[in-house]
Amino acid sequence: MANQTIILGGLPIAVASCDSAARDMVETILQNRGQQRTPQFITSANGQVLSMCAARPEIKILFEQADIIHADGEPMVKLSRLLCETALPERVATTDLVHNVARLAEEQDLSFYFLGAAQDVIEDAVANMKKLYPDLRFAGFRNGYIAKDQEEQVLAEINDAAPDILWIGMGVPLEQDFILRNRHKLTNVGVIKTSGGLFDFLSGRNERAASWMQKWGLEWAYRTWLEPKRLAWRYLTTNPHALLLLLTRSR
What we know:
Number of helices: 12
Number of strands: 8
Strand content: 15-25%
Largest sheet: 6 strands, parallel
Helix content: 40-55%
Distance between the termini: 17 Å
Shape: globular
Radius of gyration: 17 Å
Number of domains: 1
């Protein structure tokens, strides 16, 4: 399913469910193991990303170079049913996808590497995942604060660890830029998935909205209620713009 795309808000979005996306990732890893190939680059888009890409072409170029873009926004799913010939089956939120992949990784003996967030956050994220998935292998983890003169060493450490899946959480557009600058050096990695604020959720620092809010595309409202100073202006400006983009740049 991930090979099929539709245009939503101006970006090519994969027609995928969380389950099919996870299985596609695992299939790619198993096919490419030991081949020393450039890893597959998977990212996600939501309303904020659509708005950023329309306003800043240099960011849109980063997303267009990804191999797969998942829809991490419920409004994108609902509007795809009205505006596109093929509807998205569901939202592929990274906070859900990581669990789908972890279950398959246990079965196939695949390894994770977490890169991003502060050191205490990433440590807690790894510890919590190990509790949930005792048979999940971690090739390594590291905080996301990388000085320019440290980058080559970090890349070498990741390549030596040879994780099947590298999850990178640095925020948009830093994580996309980091991947595109460096993925050709990470030929021992199978798949690279951008992760945004995933590690804050896995560590327990942030909580997800209630399921009914997620279903109706209101997770942004819950996050704004929790962090009004940081997020209120962002959503007030990007949400209307994203809706306009979805209505006028989808097919």
